Amino acid sequence: MDAGSVTVTATGLGDYTGCTVQRTYLIAPAPLEVVTDGASKPYDGTPLTAGGTLSGLVGGETATLSTTGSQTEVGSSPNTYELLWDGTAKESNYQVAAQRLGTLTVEKAKATEPDGPSDPDRNDGTGAGTEKDGATPQSDRATAPKVAGTQTSATSRHAGSRPGAATVPPLGDEGAQPLTFAGAAAALASLGAVLLAPWKRAKTAR
Q1: Is the distance from CB of 190 to CB of 169 less than 8 angstroms?
Q2: Which pLDDT belongs to residue 68?
Q3: Residue 47: predicted pLDDT
Q4: Alpha-carbon distance 74 to 186, whole Å?
Q5: What count of other Cβ atoms lies within 10 Å of the Cβ of residue 48?
Q6: 68: left (phi over 0), alpha (psi -120 to 50) or beta
Q7: Burial letters for 52-70: b for 16+ Cβ neighbours within 10 Å, e otherwise?
Q8: Which helix (H) or strand (E) holds 204?
Q9: In angstroms, rounded to a whole number, what is the distance separating the alpha carbons of residues 190 and 183?
């Protein structure tokens, strides 16, 4: 028998023949209880959902509880639901008497520290760390090329003087130390003095 108003008529028999009694009864809908689950997670760009339970159906009747709550952005909202009367239970025979809705919460994602590049000034354990302030590591300093141990000759002519061969001191030798800037300057100064010597002698003789 379905929920609703029902009228019952009783008719007497025997000594009660001719007696009729009517009574009206109200059959109330069966109470249902709906509980939806709550859930939470860090933000990941996907919807957060959760299930639920439906209780109170009688006589083995069936219906479906469908949770409709969804939370994608940071924040919270109730996990709502919908009852689908797609089974043997009739909607008119039931009434939701109690419901507890869970909360869906999306929290801010925790910031993660990316693996950054290694410190260029950190020594890697090999003793070849990088020097600061623009200095060049000892292992990377360029060395001047070695100059063969030969002598360089130059001939100078000047009016009133005889040709003369001037000998320039050797700039380097095999196995010598790398030529530095100061060493190169000294060698060039010596070369200039040798080349200018005949000109100075001729000038003095005048």
Answers
A1: yes
A2: 98
A3: 98
A4: 75
A5: 21
A6: alpha
A7: bebebbeeeeebebebebe
A8: helix 181-205
A9: 11
3-state secondary structure of 83: strand
- Tens-place pLDDT, residues 53-80: 999 999 999 999 999 999 999 999 999 9
Spatial separation of the C-alpha atoms in residues 104 and 38, rounded to whole Å: 5
Strands of the chain, DSSP E: 4-11, 20-27, 30-36, 39-42, 52-55, 64-67, 75-78, 81-84, 94-100, 103-107, 152-156, 164-168
Alpha carbons 139 and 129: distance in angstroms, whole number? 10
- Domain range summary for the chain, segments of one domain joined by +: 24-107, 147-205
The residue behind tokens 């000038």 is 203
CA angle 106, 107, 112 (to 5 degrees): 130
- Per the listing, tokens 């924040």 go with 75
One-letter amino acid at 129 equals G
Band of residue 182 on the pLDDT scale cut at 50, 70, 90: low
Q: Cite the DSSP H helix spans in 53-120.
A: none
Place of tokens 């910031």: 111
Distance CA 183, CA 195 (A): 19
CATH of domain 24-107: 3.10.430
The answer to whether 31 and 95 have CB atoms below 8 angstroms apart is: yes
